[in-house]
Every structure is written in structure tokens, then in C-alpha cells.
């Protein structure tokens, strides 16, 4: 990756982070922590890897994305707005009555959302179903799925893990947003994921692990995953909950928190200063 | 027509549909042998997906398949369909406005030797609370074939309560069916029995014959669909009757009995007697034993009616 390309991606991630903080701050409450931790992966996907056409959100040739940790919707909405799926102004409707940007992703409301999620544990299964259908339809589109580390407490994640490996769904590339935190505490104190790489490997997946805030490392991992055949890929992203939102970065309380426009403006100013 | 197993009719209907429509797929959770869809797999090996003993995964996978235009029929025992995988059916299928046909087999006492753990007396009540889905319980091979075809034509998710075992046809092969439409099987002037499902429609027809001996002329309605519920046909059948009786192989709360009670409460009607399971769990035994144990037989229906009518 050239340094220009890297800067370009980092700037995009910064813009998407700002849009997300601004949208949630405008409302005053939201799932800021887990939205911030996936900004880089969304940026690399939508700026570089995920085939899409904002003018045709349901274009059959597009790659699919299932945000299984559906509460991080606001980060994805900002990414979609950034790519032109809908006007950025719409981000201010987040969670307001009648909005098409609900707290958790809804395929029937938001252009660019491929699957309805929000009940944790279901998205990887749904992504597997999508990958299976695409294979039946001889469509070579990729399916990306993002799951949470807290979400990985759900047994269904591991049902899906077995299933996708059994079906050899190599068009499926999943990410675990491993920010090490869940609502009630540190993941290792609530339900330790232990050897997370070993777990996915033993379930028959191709496993990679990178710094989830390093756009170049994410890019390299996705490039490798796309070429890998015979197995689905799990890319473990080591991330920081609340990354880049100065008032909550690395804070356990960031899962779903209140903060006002002034706090948001302060965090945004810091991001602009640092870029 | 010989007496076919309902599961064989289910599988043969799916094959028929699949031959015409490449989007028809089936999902099983290690109960393909029980559901009898092995014949489908032989014909369409790539369109029969066995997810293993993982019903939750099955329903979300089905949602994903439907998001890409497939029409999945996902089957398991009714107890697992409605209880184990409810949230997956609710969110990944119904709430997502996708087109997944969930099939719950072995309704109520037909679970027989599998016993209380496997005996769904509550699946319809649970499913009835899921918005915008269809719920059907065909009563014979003819209605099953027709309603499976109708379900495949519709774009919403659905719950099909499937009796797996052999049932004699009630309907002529030429009979036409619609989702949300009941059938008046017997005219009658005194009372009206509204029944749901293969076993209870048969027990109600037996009750009809027995009641005649006591001078009670009973109309019999086969409800067939619980959602949409054919309020029109049922209200009409109840009109002017001394008594209406619901007969279901299910808890009396939340499904057929409640649906009929709602009509009566909202628009008036006769006194209601609900035959079914009264707040009990299932237990093990033969189907015949369990029908008697839970007072679901024609004889039991007759006794309840005679008690109320004092005849």
C-alpha cells in the first residue's frame, strides 16, 4: 500500500468516525463504543474491497455485508452515507420516530443494508445462508460479516461456525470485532473467549488476526482472505472500544451511552486536529 | 386414494414445486428421516441442506437464503420450531420480512412415544403472536398438498403445522383451498364445532355422528388456517347456534379457542366450549392413550356438549 493510499483510507476512516460521533451526539445517546471499533474495517471494505453501487443498493453483482452486531449500525450508516447511498443529512434522523436509520440494522429500511440484525448471534448464520444461496445461483459475490466478541458468547455463532466450514463457504469472510469489552465488563471476566484464533481454526476456518485500526493490515488480510479457497475466513480484529471518541475511548461504559453535542464537537475537533 | 403418510405428501409436493421453481430449497436439522424429505434430497441434492442438530442456525440460514430469493422450507419437530428457534424465526425471517416456511411436525399428542419434551401444545399460540405470518394446519393429504403450494406462492414467512403420520383424505382431490379460508364440512342447526388439524377434525366428525344419536345437529368447520383466521366463515357457521365448540390438539389458550373467543367477544355469538389441552404439559404414550388422557376424543367432545346442553 502506498503512503498516499494509506492516508486516503485513514482520512476516510476519520470522516466516517466524525459522521458517526456527530449523528449519535445529535441524538444524545447511542451505541458509540462498538461503532467506533469497527470504523476502519468498514472503511477498508467500502473504499477498497466490497463491490457496491450506491445507485443500485440491491445490485445482484454486489458483495454482501451482514453487520451481525447490529447495534453498531450507526457506523455502517455513516459509511453508506459517505459512499453516497443516501444523503449525509439523513444521519441526523438516527433513531428518531419514522427514521430509516434504526438503532439496529434493518434490510427493509436502509439502502445498502443486506440483512436485518440486532438479536445477537444470528448474523453469521444469515451470512452463511446468503453465501450458500449465492453459490447455488452461481453468483461469485463475496459475503462479509462482522460479529462482536460479546456476541460470540451466543451458542448460535458456533453453530454457524460449524455450518459454514461444513459447507466450505469460502466466499464468506467474517470479522470479529475483538474490543475485549461487553456491556457488563471485560469479556475475559464475563465469558472468556480464551484462544479465539484456536477456536476458529478448530472449527475449520482460515484464521487471520490483525490490528483492527490499521487500515493497511486490514487491507492485506482481506486480500488474502479473498484468495483463500475451501474454507470460510475469520479475521480477528484487535480493536479498542470507543476508538477515536475521546470521551469514551477504551471505556467500559461506552456500549450505549449518553453524550451531548458539545462532547461530540470536542471529540470531533480532536480528530480533525490529529489527522 | 390409499391412506398416504402426510410426510410423504409433504415431500412429494415439495418435489413437484421444486421441479418448476429452482428457488425452492429445503432445510433439515438432522430430522430428514423423520420428515421424510430424503426423496427430495435424492432429486435435488444441492437444494437439500442439512444443518445438523442446530435449529437456531437453520432458521437464520433460511433467512439468509430467502434474502437472496430462495424459498426455504425448514422443518423440525414443532417443539423445536416454536420454542428453540423462535427468536431466529421471528427476527431473521418474519421481522426481516423474508419468505421462510417453517414446518413444525408432530403436533400435540401425535408426538406420542417421544413424550412431553417433544409434544408441542403451545406452538400455535407462540406463532400466533408473530406478526404478518401465515399459520396453517392441514387436516388431510389433499389440503396439505394444496396449502403447501399456496404457501410457496406467498411472499411472507409462515408456520406449517404438519401431522407426519398417515391420514385418510377428507376432501375430494378437486377441492380448492386458500390460505386463511376455513371449510364447512357438515351443515348443522343446533351447534357448531370448529376444529383444527388432522386428529381433531376427525374426532369432530366422529362427534358429529354421535351427536346425531342424541338429536343434536352439529355443524363442523375445518379451520385449516389460524392466521389469517377466517372470521367470516366461522362467524357465519356459528350464527344462530346454541353453542360453539372449538377442538384443537393444543392448549385451549392462545390458538383456536382464543381466536373463536375473540370473534364472540368482539361481535357477539353463542356460548363457547373449548376442547383441547387445559394448561398441562404433554406426556408419553400412544396417540390413542393420549387422546383419551387429554379428553380430545369424539366421545369427550360429545360429553362436553351434552353437559352444557343438558341432553
Task: Give me some keywords for this one.
heterodimer, A: 275 residues, alpha/beta, Rossmann fold, B: 311 residues, seven-stranded mixed beta sheet, five-stranded mixed beta sheet, 13 helices
Map the helices and strands.
The complex is a heterodimer of chains A (about 280) and B (about 300).
Chain A: H1 3-27, E1 29-30, H2 32-36, H3 39-49, E2 64-67, H4 73-82, H5 123-136, E3 143-148, H6 155-166, E4 172-178, E5 181-182, E6 185-186, H7 187-190, H8 196-202, E7 206-211, H9 215-227, E8 233-238, E9 257-258, H10 261-274
Parallel strand pairs in A: 2-3, 3-4, 4-8, 7-8
Antiparallel strand pairs in A: 1-9, 5-6
Helix pairs in contact in A: 1-3, 1-4, 1-10, 3-4, 3-9, 5-6
Chain B: H1 6-20, E1 24-28, H2 32-35, H3 38-43, E2 48-50, H4 55-67, E3 71-77, H5 78-84, H6 86-95, E4 101-105, H7 123-128, E5 134-136, H8 141-153, E6 158-162, E7 183-186, E8 191-196, H9 198-213, E9 218-222, E10 225-227, H10 231-238, E11 243-251, H11 256-267, E12 271-277, H12 287-293, H13 298-309
Parallel strand pairs in B: 1-2, 1-3, 3-4, 4-6, 5-6, 8-9, 8-11, 11-12
Antiparallel strand pairs in B: 5-10, 7-9
Helix pairs in contact in B: 1-8, 4-6, 9-13
Annotation, overall tally of beta strands of chain B: 12
Helical content of chain A (DSSP H or I, runs of 4+): 40-55%
CATH class of the largest domain in chain B: Alpha Beta
- The CATH topology label of chain A is Rossmann fold
The Rg value of chain A, from CA coordinates, equals 17 Å
Structural class of chain A: alpha/beta
Helix/strand-derived category of chain B reads alpha/beta
Count helical runs of chain A. 10
Task: Kindly report how far apart the N and C termini of chain B lie.
Answer: 38 Å
- Average pLDDT score of chain A: 97
Name the CATH superfamily classification of chain A.
Answer: Thiamin diphosphate (ThDP)-binding fold, Pyr/PP domains
- The span between the termini of chain A is 19 Å
User: Secondary-structure element order of chain A, as H and E?
Assistant: HEHHEHHEHEEEHHEHEEH
* Percent of residues in beta strands of chain B: 15-25%
For the largest beta sheet of chain A, what order do the strands appear in spatially?
A: 2-3-4-8-7
